[in-house]
Structure formats: C-alpha cells, structure tokens
Inverse folding.
C-alpha cells in the first residue's frame, strides 16, 4: 500500500504521517528530512560542486532517524536556519531529481506512508491514497512556534509566521514540482481539528 500526504510547512504532516504509518504497521518516509539532510551537506558548498557531491551522498532512515553518510543528523536538520536554506535549495532541479529517484525506490520496495510536497503529484502518482493536509498560516505558525520554542527561545511568533509565509511562497511558486494539491487528493483542513480528529478523518478513508 502506498499513501501520499502532502501539505505546507507546519500543517502537522510529519507527526500525522508517522502516526498513521505506525497504526498501519508500514514504513514512514519523511521526504522533507531528506531535503534538509542534503541542505546540511551542501550548506557551504558551491553550486558547481553539487553534482559530484550528490553522487557520493548516502541518505537512509533507520529506526525513525535520518542518517547522512552514516551519521544520525535527525536533530541537526531541525533548526530555523536549515528550514530557510532548505526551502531555497529544494528549488534546485538536480537535487530534486536525485531525491525523487531515491524516494521512488523506497516506495517500490515496501508499503509506505510518504510525506512531503510533491508526493502525490510527482513521486508516487499511483499512490492508493492521496491526502493534502493543510491549516491556516496563523494556526501553522502557532504550532511551529510552540515546537521551536523548546530549542530556541529567542524566536517570536511574528518571526515564525513571517518565515512560514516566505517558505509557503517559495514552496508554491518554484518552477520544479511546486507544492500543489494533486487533482485526486483528499483535502484535510486541520485548523479546527485536534490531533485525534485529524488522524481519525484520514483513517476513515483508508480501507
Ligand atoms: O516538510 P519540511 O518542512 O521538513 O520540508 C523542508 C523543506 O523541503 C520545505 O521548504 C520544502 C522542501 N520539500 C520539498 O520541496 N519537497 C518535498 N517532497 C519535501 C520537502
């Protein structure tokens, strides 16, 4: 079984997708984490070096953690700086091509809940179920702010909302695979739903 969950930053996709995978006892693939890991590796590199670097890069998930060249980078990729830079670098067609191939390979091998921006439209257009999870920018910023506050208490809600709107703009307006709702995706708006209600709604569609 293949389940695609797409949606904007802060829509709760990751937590929801992880939980759905656990309940269905199948693999969870966080594709945003893959874009973040690549960004970490390319942070201080020049664009003309990317191709060679990608050829010798290894990205894997083990026990719910993401490994970049055999090093667990799960925490390192969750900073506000990496979020901003990832949104820029994920416009790069070469990086997208590399990661999409890796993701398609994962989905071919086993049942997955795969979560990202272009999963239903590009990575697994033949998915059994496609969901587009969203919420208002203010609600998403509130959730992100509460999450980030634990690591960085210098951030304000206003800054998080501003960054989120910039990322929304980047993610929806880039030329290659912008964030869009696939025509046949089911929209789940979680603005007024709590966590369990969102999960139940999604599960109610899955047979
Ligand atoms: O889901 P996230 O916030 O961890 O994603 C980080 C960035 O990666 C986000 O700016 C959009 C990008 N991304 C993407 O372009 N395509 C995906 N399938 C997943 C994430």
């Amino acid at each position: 079984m293949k389940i695609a969950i797409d949606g904007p930053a802060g829509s709760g996709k990751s937590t929801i997708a992880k939980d759905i995978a656990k309940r269905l006892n199948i693999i969870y693939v966080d594709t945003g984490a893959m874009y973040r890991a690549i960004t970490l590796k390319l942070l201080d590199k020049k664009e003309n070096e990317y191709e060679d670097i990608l050829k010798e890069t290894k990205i894997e998930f083990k026990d719910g953690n993401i490994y970049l060249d055999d090093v667990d980078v799960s925490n390192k990729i969750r900073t506000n700086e990496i979020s901003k830079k990832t949104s820029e670098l994920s416009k790069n067609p070469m990086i997208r091509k590399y990661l999409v191939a890796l993701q398609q390979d994962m989905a071919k091998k086993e049942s997955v809940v795969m979560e990202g921006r272009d999963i239903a439209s590009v990575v697994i257009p033949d998915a059994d179920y496609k969901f587009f999870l969203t919420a208002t920018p203010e609600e998403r910023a509130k959730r992100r702010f509460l999450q980030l506050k634990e690591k960085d208490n210098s951030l304000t809600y206003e800054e998080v909302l501003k960054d989120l709107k910039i990322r929304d703009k980047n993610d929806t307006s880039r030329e290659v695979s912008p964030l869009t709702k696939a025509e046949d995706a089911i929209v789940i708006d979680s603005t007024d739903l709590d966590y369990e209600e969102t999960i139940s709604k999604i599960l109610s569609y899955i047979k």
